[in-house]
Amino acid sequence: MISTRQLGIIVALSRVSVITVFLPVITAADARQDAPIAAVVSTLGGVLLTLPAVALAVRFPGTSYGGFARRVLGKPLGILASVLLAGFFLVLVVLRARQLAFLLIASQLELAPSWIFAGTVVLVGGYGASLGGDSLGRMAEILLTLVVGSIVVGLSLAFLSVPIDFRYLRPIMHRGWGPVLYASLNPIFWFVTSGSVVLALSAYCPDHRRIPRAVMAAIVGSGVVLVAMAIGATIIFGPEKAQGQLSPALSLARIVFVHGVIERMDALLMSVWVAGVTFDAALFTLVSVVTLSDATRISPKYVLIAIVSIGFILAVQRFVDIFLIRRLVDPVYTTWAAVLVHVLMVGGTLLVAVITGRRGAGNDDSSK
Amino acid sequence: MTILRSKHKCFLVALLILLLLVNSGCWGRRETGDLAIVGSIGLDLIEPDDEEVLVSLEIVNPDALAVGPQRPPGGPQVAWIIREQATSASNAIAAMQRRTPRWLFLGQISTLVVGQTLARRGILPYLDFFVRHGEFRRTIALNVCDSASGLLQRPFIEELPSRTLDGLMLAVPASGQTTTVDLNEFLRALSEPGIEPIAVHTVGRETKDLIIKDIGEELQQEEPAESRDEPMEAGEELPAMLPPDAPILDPIPERGTAELMPGMTIMVGLAAFRDDRLVGFLDGYDARGYLWVAGRMYKGHFELSTLFWDGGTIGLHLVRLNTRFSPVVRDGELMGMQVSVQPDFQVVEVMSPISLGEPGVIDDIENALNRAIEAEIDRSLEIIRHFQSDIYGFGQSLFRAHPKIWEEMEGDWNEEHFPNLTIDVEVRSRVRGAETLLRE
Questions:
Q1: pLDDT for residue B216
Q2: Using CB atoms within 10 A as the burial measure, which of A129, A185, A332, B33 is most buried?
Q3: The predicted structure's pLDDT at residue B246
Q4: Is residue A367 part of a domain?
Q5: Number of domains composing chain A
Q6: A340 in any annotated domain
């Protein structure tokens, strides 16, 4: 079992580790000096679009999406929706593994083969998932401290290392809402995706009535980190240069060094990020396994082995990059993914549940 | 609730063994002893129309820098300068690797020196390497000088030229006649609208400084150093010779042996760029005229002539500087730029019979300071207008406050609007610390 606090930390960690390194709010669009505003918008959008998932988690306590989708949508449609959701999270595991391999090779270990890192992430993620939500909850508490600590220390040292000018955040919104909204699409997708892990983790969380507050606090908290990082990258690199980078966060870390103490802050940040990505892989694998197992009534052990095997085979393929990496940082593709998975599938499930009045067994109104 | 409850320990052990085998840090490893650490890098063009760039690397010998018993006897070289000409910096470094028995490690480079000839042609194509390569830091200091390869040969106090340049970067802004510029700032100014980049202008010149060789003998000049006022050619060596007509060092009433310092590194001011091309230099007080407006002076000495009172001068240290500038817009039209400069000074030297305690004297000094600073600002402004390069960022200020007006003027801002911009400068100096412990 995990507490709602741990659930919130899991959601926040998942968000912080992915968004801060690639900062899609800056790099995936053209918001320039309005990127921090786009970060705020994406946080609000993330809160809004996560509501269906949270509402389902509260409505059906003690079970995952795989369990209640069968009740709400009927067996065939429920299993199909669960397979799609599990597949979606499996794709994210592969994506995160490939991203990690790509960035490690591009920035630090250019001679290493990519399959080593990608395959390792999937395997370790599979092992983490096998430990269940309890272990992930405890691990998240430690990792979030490390990730947020490294961000706070890194940003503080970066601000001390170079002349900073907050006027780079002006003029505000002079090109209207268009660039801001477009820049917020990709982070919204990631916010909602992280929030949606509650569809599986609520099965581990006994105090389901406090789930909404924990998840929303996690999204808002990680949104604050995103805003801080967006401001830092914008004012240190200038809006246009920040936008042109693969990872503004790593570039920020490259600025930071204290002779004899921290020679390579980027290596430190990369280490923390590797831990964060591996945690993400474990989390998303667990969500896939729990969802699929509940939907198909197959033992989680076999589902896990199948998921990890498929994930490993996909993650060690370089051609996967062509289909995944660029598309899942592209606002157009991520918007479609968010609409299909989070709005139509999860939102649709909620709608049917509300219309049919179905509720989970742990609810007060379960007798209905 | 675990999924693999019974066998997860076996799985964990197997996973750990696998991880140890494939992730043990052997991918692309480079041992410290196998590295040739590069301290600074220089880029030159030997001829203005050369297609190839001359890259100079200062390779540090860490063994020679060791202190205590670890230091090998005999004083080996502390650094080597190796050079290569190639079509690009990366290509040249790859060529240099052919004769370097260690991996060239670029992660410790702290200074990039660009020769004037190359800077005038444009440096952006060469900077890409420094941004894209994972080893470089964004805080690399950017210098422009006559000859980059020549500049890398002049250590002073520090044993390494790169450490000398590092130290200068930290200390020289205290002169109030230049500032520090790193790669990140340069690229930021290059990419943002309404502002042009600057770099530090550094030269290698003869000085009257001495190296004291030994104490206890009659002071005499042993190895006269080179006197040079003209820019060096790229790749030129520095002979320790004085030209025949150079002044002879006068004996000074000390006992010892000494020699003139060879050409030394002096950060004399700033290099102004238009886009990525060097358009001119602002040296000494001209640079200070820019720094007043840009608000980038953190320390500095200012000497005020008091000839209009009783003769002599007053020395003041800058304590604080607040600068603001904002566009003046009326009816949707840019009328000019309002610049407000507010320096705070502390009196450090009074070489005049005036008494600072007398009523009105401080006011007179402040007024005189205002006029002197305005004159410096006007002079540098005229030079920079001539460059047609808005290194102040007046255009950026306009963009931030009135983006629509900026969009109309952006196309010919540097050529047309900036040189003809009406700039209203208001200086309000404050003098404090006029009292001394001694009675005047």
A1: 54
A2: A129
A3: 45
A4: no
A5: 1
A6: yes
Is A145 a domain residue? yes
pTM: 0.84
Q: Do A255 and B139 touch (CB under 8 A)?
A: yes
CATH number at A230 reads 1.20.1740.10
The DSSP result for A273-328, as a single string, is HHHHHHHHHHHHHHHHHHHHHHHH---HHHHHHHHHHHHHHHHT-TTHHHHTTTGG
pLDDT value at position B243? Answer: 42
Chain B residues lying within 8 Å of A174, measured CB to CB: 403-404
How many Cα atoms sit within 13 Å of A212 on the Cβ side?
A: 10
Contact call for A171 and B400, based on CB within 8 A: yes
Residues of B in contact with A132 (CB under 8 A): 1-3
- Residue B210 has a pLDDT of 67
Domain that holds residue A296: 4-356
Asked if residue B139 has pLDDT above 90, the reply is no
Q: Is the pLDDT of residue B162 over 60?
A: yes
**Interchain CB distance below 8 Å, B188 and A109:** no
Quick check: ipTM above 0.85?
no
Closest Cβ opposite residue B28 in set A109, A237, A255: A109
| Block residue for tokens 């990690």 | A100
pLDDT in tens, A289-319: 999 999 999 999 999 999 999 999 999 888 8
Residue B235: Cβ within 10 Å count = 16
For residue A175, give the 3-state DSSP assignment: coil
Domain B284-440 in CATH 3.30.300.210? The answer is: yes
- Give the three-state DSSP class for B257: strand
Give the whole-angstrom CA distance, residue A241 versus residue A238.
6
Look at B25 and B189; give whichever has higher pLDDT: B189
Under an 8 A CB cutoff, do B27 and A251 touch? Answer: no
Cα B179 vs. chain centroid, distance in angstroms? Answer: 6
Q: Is the pLDDT of residue B240 over 60?
A: no
DSSP letter (8 states) at residue A262? B
Read off the DSSP letter of residue A341.
I
Q: What residues of chain A lie within 8 A of the CB of B187, using their CB? A: 237-238, 241
B258-294 pLDDT tens trace: 666 667 788 889 999 999 999 999 998 999 999 999 9
- Cite the residue boundaries of each domain of chain B with CATH code 3.30.300.210: 284-440
Residue A62 lies in a domain: yes
Question: Which candidate, B309, B297, B269, places its Cα nearest to that of B145?
Answer: B269
Residues sharing a CB contact under 8 Å with residue A59, sequence separation 6 or more, in sequence order: A68, A350, A353, A358, A359, A360, A363
B403 contacts A171? CB cut-off 8 A: yes
